[in-house]
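Encode chain A's predicted structure.
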Amino acid sequence: MTPRAPALSPEARRASLVDVTIPLLREHGAALTTRQVAEAAGIAEGTVFRAFGSKEELVQACASAVFDSTDVVAQLRAIDRTLSLDERLVAAVTVMQVRVERIIGVMTTLRLSGVVPPHHHAPTRHRASDPEVDAVFVDLIGDDAASLRLPAQDVVDVLAQLTLASAHPFFPGPALTPAQVVSVVLDGTRRSR
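Encoded structure for chain A:
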């Protein structure tokens, strides 16, 4: 007999199931079963249905979760402000590449599986991130904005676009590392000394 999963609040159980399901979705797409989710979570399959009325509801919750920037914003805010501008931005781009890879992985798998993910959470055509994430990036640039030829928000926009391109699996060539992304952007926007 398997040990019983710890009792969680309904919100915590839902969040836990979403966390377990996202990597499974990337691996199995729409063929994912609630039995696989239950086994990965160490719970009975009925618990999945008590938390989510259907597999489709769970999949939609996963699709929405990948766009939630709460954890990303917290990680960005935790970056040590005493680091150099280059080091701060490399740390931030590292966080963002992981986020972009997660979003693209789940959304691509869902689309290829015939599941239409929700569109209301998707970044707009011109934005690779969201305003809260952008604000944290501007804050990370901080006083170093005076050393740049472009306004901080413009630098953030270029970083976001290059980060998206560097992490997107459909772009040809090897992916750029966070250090390469930051180097290209800062070397192109720093004022001459």
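The CA atoms of residues 22 and 94 lie 20 Å apart.
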